[in-house]
Amino acid sequence: STPLYSSAASDVYKRQVIDSVDITVFQSCKYQIMAKDSVTGNFQILEINSIHDGTDVYLTEYGEVLTSSSAIGTFSVDITSGMLRLTVVPASTNSSTFTAHRIGIEV
Fold it and tell me: Which label site among 28, 53, 87, 104 has the fewest CB atoms less than 10 Å from its CB?
C-alpha cells in the first residue's frame, strides 16, 4: 500500500508531523511505522495503537525492532486544533526517512 508520509528531513529534536486526522471522523488509529537512517543504513520498526476521548490521547507502543543499539526517532500521538497527529522527533541529524501506514476506526 501507499505510505502516508515519507520524509528525508532530519531536524534533530524538532517534532515533525507524519499523519493527522480529524478527531470528529476517527476515534482510534493503529500505525505501523518504519524509519530508515540513510547514512548508517539502520532501520527501526514499531506499531502504535491510539484512541482519544476528544481531549486526551491514550496510546501504547509495541513491537519495536531496531537494527542498531539506538532508535532513529521517538514517536508520539497528540491532539492539536481538533486533529489527531502522529509525530516523530528524529534522534540525529542524519538524513532519515519515516514511513507510516494507518488503520483508522471512524467515530
Answer: 53
Question: What gap in Å lies between CA 56 and CA 39, rounded to an integer?
Answer: 36
Q: Which residue has the cell 528524529?
A: 90
The alpha carbon of 95 is separated from its chain's Cα centroid by a whole number of angstroms, namely 17
What is the C-alpha separation between 34 and 100, in angstroms, rounded?
A: 6
**Per-residue pLDDT tens for 66-106?**
999 999 999 999 999 999 999 999 998 888 889 999 999 99
Q: Do the beta carbons of residue 89 and residue 14 sit within 8 Å? A: yes
Q: What is the pLDDT of residue 8?
A: 57
The model's pTM is 0.91
Nearest CA-CA partner of 17 in 92, 103, 81, 63: 81
